[in-house]
Design goal:
about 300 residues, alpha/beta, 5-stranded mixed beta sheet, 10 helices, 12 strands, globular, Clx_II_MBL, hydroxyacylglutathione hydrolase, zinc, Metallo-B-lactamas, hydroxyacylglutathione hydrolase activity
């Protein structure tokens, strides 16, 4: 039986509406399936442990992921560092451009001469570093590849030529602290004093964004926690203790914000620590803490 004209028009309208709806849904689905997510690039940091069981040092290979330009930080023991560099440069994974030294001590800058036999590179570091090419001024900047910005932060005390290097790549931040700041501790005052270390830790480094990851020159965390527990009992120190007992390496796992909580050398204004040390100001507390740590 044929449809009435009104029913026929209604049927045509509904079929057209259905077809339009299907087309629009297909278009939206297609757009969703072919749209690629934004890729967030960030610097790549590779730790190279050296002298495990004795010095427990770290060298760091830092690469701009986009350009593949890389720098090697404190490559002090060439027999452990060169195989890593050769494998990655020969495969084309990186383009090595610089050596960076945090200070002149042999277990940080002592590998420069041997590395230079294999890679003719400029050396950026403190004025007393072996074969140094450039000593950047405090807060001066240079770039690695297309996106990494590096700021040199002078932190004299452990040595007078100590420099920490602050790396930024988009929202990623890292600081390579040599023997100035360790996870849960700080370096000995070989060439400086408590005033200088207090400024280095609690003014220069403490001013960095709290989410800045810390990459020190040595894996000393277990020993630092052992001392910290004698000085202060707080949740942050207990958590650091738990992590260090469960993990062999702690570099890059904690931030400047974390250090302000669990590093007693960055808590010199804590009333409990002042009471323990008898110090009346930050410098006196810093001096007393270092003397206690040296005796421990």
């Amino acid at each position: 039986m044929p449809l009435a004209p009104s029913h026929f028009l209604l049927s045509c309208f509904l079929m057209s509406l259905l077809a339009y709806t299907i087309k629009q849904s297909a278009s939206r689905f297609s757009a969703r399936t072919i749209t690629k997510p934004l890729i967030s690039r960030a610097m790549h940091i590779q730790s190279i442990p050296m002298w495990e069981g004795t010095g427990n040092n770290y060298a760091y290979l830092v690469t701009d992921d986009k350009s593949k330009e890389s720098v090697i930080i404190d490559p002090a023991n060439p027999p452990e560092v060169l195989p890593v560099l050769k494998e990655q440069t020969e495969s084309g994974a990186i383009k090595l451009s610089k050596i960076i030294n945090t200070h002149h001590h042999h277990d940080h800058a002592g590998g420069n001469s041997e590395i230079l036999k294999h890679y003719k590179l400029p050396i950026i570091g403190g004025k007393d570093c072996t074969q140094v090419t450039t000593t950047p001024s405090h807060k001066s900047q240079f770039t690695i590849g297309e996106s990494i910005k590096v700021t040199a932060l002078h932190t004299p005390c452990h040595t007078q030529d100590s420099i920490c290097f602050y790396f930024e790549d988009g929202s990623e931040r890292a600081v390579f602290t040599g023997d100035t700041l360790f996870i849960g501790g700080c370096g000995r005052f070989f060439e400086g004093n408590a005033t200088e270390m207090n400024k280095a830790l609690n003014e220069v480094l403490a001013s960095l964004p709290d989410d800045t990851k810390v990459y020190p020159g040595h894996e000393y965390t277990k020993g630092n926690v052992k001392f910290a527990k004698k000085v202060l009992d707080n949740e942050a120190i207990r958590k650091l203790d738990e992590f260090s007992q469960a993990n062999k390496e702690t570099q890059g796992k904690f931030t400047i914000g974390d250090e302000k909580q669990h590093n007693v050398f960055m808590r010199v204004n804590d009333p409990d620590i002042q009471s323990l040390t008898g110090g009346k100001d930050a410098v006196e507390v810093m001096k007393a803490l270092r003397e206690m740590k040296d005796r421990s």
